[in-house]
Amino acid sequence: MAQERTNAATFKGNPITLIGPELQVGDAAPDFKVSKNLLEEATLKDYAGKIKLISVVPSLDTGVCDAQTRRFNEEAAGLGDNVIVLTISADLPFAQERWCAAAGIDRVVTLSDHKEMSFGDAYGVHIKEFRLDMRSIFVVDKNDKITYVEYLKEMAEHPNYENAVAAVKELL
User: Fold this and answer.
1) pLDDT in tens, 81-126
2) Does domain 16-170 sit in CATH 3.40.30.10?
3) Which of 16, 57, 65, 108 is the catalytic position?
4) Residues in the active site (predicted)?
């Protein structure tokens, strides 16, 4: 059974349990298997050689997740071709595609963790009580080493956008 971290975070002040390890700067980024769409899967290896800003959100259909994804879509424009911004949630691929089209999101790649919660379990962000991924940010260098981690303590709060973008820019 996967490691459970009780009281690792809260949702509107109520404790939630996160499944998986708490990754640290310097750790090798774990592999994962998520859905690009209904038929195609993606893994960490699909983004080999790129700097990866991984923005994790519980659901794109909520206010903070919407704002977080829009912000990183804007930031992506200035990061160059060596950087890929991935947004991972447990939303179905259909919902992600619909949301991106409605929001005009064109620089962020959305990936769905809905099938196996593979990303959530590997990165320690799988919320046991809701079967969603906890809001968090990971910056992974070209060699798949984690160089920045932000696990939010409260699900409804925004991440530190400036620190995440600065961590990416340090790798350029």
Assistant:
1) 999 999 999 999 999 999 999 999 999 999 999 999 999 999 999 9
2) yes
3) 65
4) 65 (cysteine sulfenic acid (-soh) intermediate)
51-86 confidence digits (pLDDT tens): 999 999 999 999 999 999 999 999 999 999 999 999
Torsion, CA 145, CA 147, CA 152, CA 153, rounded to 10: 90
Residue among 39, 57, 32, 50 nearest 110 (CA)? 57
Contact between residue 163 and residue 172 where contact means Cβ atoms under 8 Å apart:
no
- Is 100 one of the annotated active-site residues of the chain? no
Q: Please report, for the chain, how many H helices and E strands are present, in that order.
A: 4, 11
SS3 31: coil
What is each CA distance from 37 to 54, 64, 109, 110, 128, in whole angstroms? 18, 23, 11, 9, 24
Domain boundaries, the chain: 16-170
